UniProtKB/TrEMBL annotation:
It is an enzyme of class 2 (transferase). Keywords: Endoplasmic reticulum, Lipid biosynthesis, Lipid metabolism, Membrane, Phospholipid biosynthesis, Phospholipid metabolism, Transferase, Transmembrane, Transmembrane helix. It comes from Manduca sexta. The chain crosses the membrane at residues 33-52, 64-84, 151-171, 177-197, 347-368. One of its GO terms (biological process) is phosphatidylserine biosynthetic process. InterPro entries: PSS (IPR004277). Belongs to the phosphatidyl serine synthase family. The keyword Transmembrane helix applies. This is Phosphatidylserine synthase. It is a multi-pass membrane protein. Catalyzes a base-exchange reaction in which the polar head group of phosphatidylethanolamine (PE) is replaced by L-serine.
Length: 377
């Protein structure tokens, strides 16, 4: 039955495509290219729905997460294509997508972290802007993904170390000490982590009773049930570490902490090397895409790390790892002039600190689970 439905669905899409193909104006070359790209993307996502494997999530529907997997594969293929292009060709493609990018250039002469001793309420409040809210919401989202306070605080603190290490390459990483420690770590990141973990706790304690929408008589009840379709079927507690954790899990979590830093760095290097404003639709679209890709990727990685019967990492997680590596290669290839100014000592010290702090943090969490939780239980 499902195969017949899939076949009919594919035939309908093919007929719709042919209808627009034969009844559209083809005199505009750019419009033709855009239409062709959109058509390829559309049918690739249709193929994703019909053939790609299900992800770890079932809400609101497994087909949605198959589309997310298809979008991640498309993004990986686009990155691989750009990897073989010259810097000027990549710029030409970006200018073709948005001609306004020609008028934007990174201001390398702008001074950051000046007059740090001038601490007034007005100046501190002026830093509470849209980026501060972005920090808060981003860390709340990360807390819902990781659901472990120790790992989240380790990543938060190490990101500030990362900003210090790469401030000579990315001027906007330069911040006053109170901006970095108080506004970022304690207030924005800290409140985001706290709120995210509180949401997770509430969802874990909630009693889930799912009723078919057909069995609900009232219109209000049907609307409420439709909205609840976008919430999890159930919310199981996450336990990354426990007293019986193996060394493989220990190093897998340390690796996750370091990889997360690299993934965050890619965001800033991409928009700096290819000169895009933070509010550009391409930057926002990438952040949104990476956000939805990370959710099933982290879940698959968690299953791989904690389930002894899981022998290989999930496909979505593997694709996201390939995306992270390809983005880094794209930055290094096209940012030779920028990375030529890199202070090698800073980068080496940063890498050593990342490894030591991630290992130390994970080991500290293991000791906490082994001694403190056992005594309080």
């Amino acid at each position: 039955m499902r195969r017949g439905g899939d076949c009919n669905f594919g035939i309908i899409c093919w007929l719709i495509n042919n209808f627009f193909l034969y009844f559209r104006d083809e005199r505009d070359i750019q419009e033709n290219i855009w239409s062709g790209i959109c058509c390829v993307v559309f049918f690739f996502l249709i193929v994703s729905v019909l053939t790609f494997p299900n992800g770890p999530f079932t809400r609101p529907h497994p087909a949605l997460w198959r589309i997310v997997f298809g979008m991640s594969v498309l993004y990986l293929l686009a990155l691989l294509f750009l990897l073989f292009q010259s810097y000027s060709t990549v710029y030409a493609i970006m200018y073709w997508i948005d001609p306004n990018l020609r008028n934007f250039h990174i201001d390398m002469d702008k001074e950051y972290a000046v007059n740090c001793s001038d601490i007034t309420f007005a100046r501190v409040w002026s830093h509470v802007d849209v980026f501060a809210w972005g920090h808060f919401l981003g860390w709340a989202f990360k807390a819902i993904l990781f659901r472990h306070a120790g790992l989240l605080w380790a990543i938060s603190i190490m990101w500030e170390i990362t900003e210090i290490a790469f401030a000579h390459l990315l001027p906007n990483f330069k911040e006053c000490w109170w901006d970095s420690l108080i506004l970022d770590v304690l207030i924005c990141n800290g409140l985001g982590i706290w709120c995210g973990l509180k949401i997770c706790k509430a969802l874990e304690m909630r009693e889930y009773k799912w009723v078919s929408i057909r069995d609900i008589s009232s219109t209000t009840g049907k609307i409420k049930r439709a909205i609840l379709q976008f919430t999890p079927v159930q919310w199981t507690p996450v336990r990354w570490l426990d007293p019986t954790s193996t060394y493989m899990r220990f190093f897998a979590l340390s690796q996750l902490v370091v990889f997360w830093q690299i993934s965050e760095l890619n965001t800033f290097f991409l928009k700096h090397i290819f000169e895009m404003p933070p509010s550009h639709p391409l930057v926002i679209a990438r952040l949104c895409l990476v956000g939805v890709i990370v959710a099933p990727s982290v879940r698959q990685y968690y299953t791989y790390v904690t389930d002894p019967y899981c022998k290989r990492v999930g496909t979505q997680c593997w694709v996201y790892g390939a995306i992270m590596v390809t983005e880094s290669m794209l930055c290094i290839k096209n940012g030779k002039e920028l990375f030529g100014q890199a202070q090698v000592c800073n980068v080496i010290v940063w890498l050593v600190i990342q490894i030591l702090v991630s290992i130390g943090c994970v080991y500290g969490v293991v000791l906490y689970h082994r001694y403190f939780e056992v005594r309080t239980a």
